[in-house]
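#onboarding

Welcome to the new folks! Below is a worked example of what a typical request in this channel looks like: someone posts a single protein sequence, and someone else replies with the predicted structure as tokens. Don't worry about understanding the tokens yet, we'll cover that in week two.

Example request:
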Amino acid sequence: MLLIKHLHVLLAFITLASFVARALLAMADSPLRQRKWVRIAPHIIDTLLLACGITLAVQMAISPLVHGWLMAKIIGLLAYIGFGVLAMRATTRGLRLIGFVGAVGSVSYIFAVAYSKQVLPWV
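Example response:
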């Protein structure tokens, strides 16, 4: 279980780093973002991250219906996905920037909830 937890944390940081890199490429309208591996790798990383998270929840016998902090992470994940789509697909730099800030804010919230096990980690 400890190995899966460490892998989950590592993948979370890799996901954040790859998102920031891809968002910067998107804001710069770089042709690098059209490379096949740049488009596919994030999906592989995110799938592994989600699989590790689900595995941990099953092994620890925790449910988002019982543990509010886990539900908060799932809601934060949905916000991250929405903001991430905006950051990558928006047609204006302003909207891409809003998506970027929202996505990084969502990930920051997810990290804080994961660390504190509190729905409102900054209170």
